[in-house]
Amino acid sequence: MRIVELILDEESELGIEAISVVESPAIEEDFVALKSQEFKLAEVDKERRILMGALLIPNKPIYRRNGEDEYYIYFSKDTVLKASQMYLMNSKQNNATLEHQYEVNGLSLVESWIVEDKVHDKSVKYGMDLPLGSWVGSVKVNNDKIWNEFVKTGKVKGFSIEGYFADKMERPKESIDEELAAIEEAEAEYLLKEIKAIIKNDKRVKGGKKMVLETYSDYPQSVSNNAKRGLKLNEAVNNKCATQVGKVRAQQLAQGKPVSKETIKRMFSYLSRAETYYNPKDTEACGTISYLLWGGKSAMSWAESKLKQLENE
User: Of 168, 183, 208, which residue sits at a domain end?
Assistant: First the structure.
């Protein structure tokens, strides 16, 4: 059965529209009803009507069926984080539904956070064992009907989100290879223009000396290791992945050779766009191999940090 990653729609970026209280939450985590004595406030009601629970859990397969089509969906940590931020940025914290069918008033998200510590996170205090990267929230229920008829009676047991996401479906292998090649060719064309400009400037003499292109080789060993691994994996598939540009870049990084500022820019640009095709579990995919040839995630992090450093100098 296929597994589909859901991502935020990059065009509309609508994200999550509402939080629903449901009997069977897709994430299979019940919320916790927090009683007044669990909060030490200056003034509290007899029953504060606050529910705490998981809103989204990263990398958790959720079964879906559309007619005869059965599949699983999941959200990455990055998508969970972005969704939680956009929900508040778009002022959706008062949007709520019952069983994804009826809009209800009087339910508000009053706390929202991402689990970053399995020991000290607030959710642990209330008996929840959630994976790192989970989005947790506390919802205030100022709706008598919902509280008395659904929460207190146990008719609803958890939270479920609703909103707009895009399917990050697997594309045909040929189209992925073509797109990766197109990205590399675009980088090569840009770099060629930069080199021509540098050569043109180098012909001009300054104080009797030519301009020297500054280079950098302080990238971490993991960058070289990724490039070496990419070369080995590519060899295993008869070197069918990547253009000549990518293969040359890999040899350069694998040998720890210095790279120019413009090359660092190209590395960051390529890796940022090609990351979507990287799947560490599929070592025969050109998306994975090409990404490693350019130094992988550690190269992208280094390139971003290095560019910021050079801009501040």
Answer: 168
**Mean pLDDT, each 10-residue run in order, the chain (313 residues):** 68 70 71 42 50 87 73 83 91 90 91 93 86 91 91 86 68 47 54 52 47 76 95 90 80 87 84 85 89 94 92 79
**3-state helix/strand/coil string of the chain:** CCEEEEEECCCCCCEEEEEEEECCCCCCCECEEECHHHCCCCCCCCCCCEEEEEEECCCCCEEEEECCEEEEEECCHHHHHHHHHHHHHCCCCCCEEECCCEECCCEEEEEEEECCCCCCCHHHHCCCCCCCCCEEEEEEECCHHHHHHHHCCCCCCEEEEEEEEEEECCCCHHHHHHHHHHHHHHHHHHHHHHHHHHHHHHCCCECCECCCCCEECCCCHHHHHHHHHHHHHHHHCCCCCCCHHHHHHHHHHHCCCCEEHHHHHHHHHHHHHHHHHCCCCCCCCHHHHHHHHCCHHHHHHHHHHHHHHHHHC
| Same-domain check for residues 124 and 63 | yes
Specify the number of domains making up the chain.
2
The model's pTM is 0.52
Domain extent, residue 15, equals 3-168
Out of 121, 141, 168, a domain closes at: 168
